[in-house]
Design a protein that fits this description.
Layout lengths: L4 E11 L3 E7 L8 E2 L2 E3 L6 H13 L9 E6 L9 E11 L11 E8 L10 H9 L2
Parallel strand pairs: 1-6
Antiparallel strand pairs: 1-4, 2-3, 2-7, 5-6
């Protein structure tokens, strides 16, 4: 059986003082829930380039692709209700107080303490755990 696989990139952005950047999703699936910035890899770009672009579009945080450190690939079947999605996740550490501004399909962007997180959409709690355990 043939399965369409979609390719995405996500970014875990943490601060030097223990916060993580989350965006509130403006679209389904999981509209109104908190998630990591990320989205589809466009034709002609790498997942690292897509991660940097999505971070700028959704949260107003600008980083060069080479500043992002790869965490890993997340491809568990069922991780997205729209179908089979494979994401490559990246990590970026920024200084405390880095400004954020929601854009694109994010309705809000907010720094959350790593010790008091809201429930996260998709498998983003697993991605966050992988990033912060390194």
């Amino acid at each position: 059986m043939f399965e369409t696989i979609r390719y995405t990139a996500d970014v875990v952005v943490t601060t030097t003082d223990g916060y993580v950047l989350l965006i509130e999703r403006g679209w389904d699936p999981h509209k109104g829930q908190w998630a990591l910035p990320g989205g589809h890899v466009d034709p002609g770009e790498t997942s690292r380039e897509a991660a940097a672009r999505e971070l700028a579009e959704e949260a107003g945080v600008y980083a060069a692709p080479e500043e992002l450190d790869q965490i890993g690939t997340f491809d568990e079947p069922g991780r997205d209700p729209r179908g089979r999605y494979v994401t490559v996740a990246y990590h970026l550490e920024v200084i405390a107080g880095t400004p954020v501004e929601a854009g694109d399909d994010a309705t809000r962007a907010h720094w959350w303490p790593l010790t008091a997180l809201p429930p996260l959409a998709f498998d983003h709690a697993d991605i966050l755990a992988a990033a912060t355990s390194k």
